[in-house]
Design a protein that fits this description.
- By secondary structure, the protein is mainly α.
- The chain is built from 13 helices and two strands; from the N terminus they run E-H-H-E-H-H-H-H-H-H-H-H-H-H-H.
- Helix 1 crosses helix 2 and helix 3 packs across helix 9.
- The longest helix has 15 residues.
Length: 217
């Protein structure tokens, strides 16, 4: 499986830790990170649509049912072959079905050519993807990180990243978005590295287990 590998010894990680001592403490505690990449671009976007406004567990269950429904062919052809009723039966809302159909239409018209996305800059990719109903800036940013491995992306509206920042910098819930904006220029050009370490706060349940980063054992 292709992965986005982030190691403490990487030059970018060391530079990030030197620029932000508090982030450096988190990096020391978490260590190396491996994030599975979603290299099937169409399936990646379908998965992102699937996960909107439902829990990770629920999204995973629906996506696995989609794999079964399409005989493990989450492609434009595979999705085209299944009916709206079948998609609804396995857990997709009518709105999400509309989003899936609109993505399919964009791909079939070649308004979006998935194979060329790696050659485009971040802003162009975001503009193309957000032209699809149901794909907003957050979904496009997740695609940039998890599918293309772009290393200078900070999804400010991601709740997991916000939760990690709130705990790491000990700010109120109302300030967690602002703290990300404050640190964005500090972390750049290593925003994806910072994002991945903030996600680890949630993945490792640090926010519940420890009051502060200094208390982490």
């Amino acid at each position: 499986m292709d992965t986005l590998t982030i190691r403490k010894s990487d030059a970018g990680v060391r530079e990030l830790a030197n620029k932000d001592a508090v982030m450096g403490k988190l990096i020391d505690h978490v260590g190396d990170i491996e994030v599975p990449k979603r290299t099937d671009y169409f399936a990646s976007l379908i998965r992102s649509i699937t996960g909107q406004q439902i829990s990770v567990a629920a999204a995973s269950a629906v996506f696995e049912r989609l794999r079964t429904l399409t005989n493990d062919s989450i492609t434009a052809a595979g999705i085209k072959a299944v009916s709206d009723d079948a998609l609804h039966t396995i857990g997709f809302s009518k709105r999400k079905i509309q989003y899936i159909r609109d993505l399919l239409a964009h791909v079939e018209r070649q308004d979006i050519v998935l194979s060329t996305l790696p050659m485009l800059d971040n802003d162009t990719i975001i503009k193309q993807l957000t032209s699809v109903k149901g794909i907003g800036k957050w979904t496009a940013e997740m695609f940039l990180i998890l599918s293309l491995g772009r290393m200078d992306i900070l999804a400010i509206d991601d709740i997991g990243i916000q939760r990690g920042a709130r705990w790491l910098y000990q700010v109120d819930k109302s300030e967690r978005r602002d703290i990300l904006k404050q640190y964005q220029p500090v972390w750049s050009p290593h925003l994806t590295i910072a994002s991945c370490y903030l996600w680890e706060v949630v993945h490792l349940d640090l926010e519940r287990r420890f009051p502060t980063v200094d208390a982490v054992e």
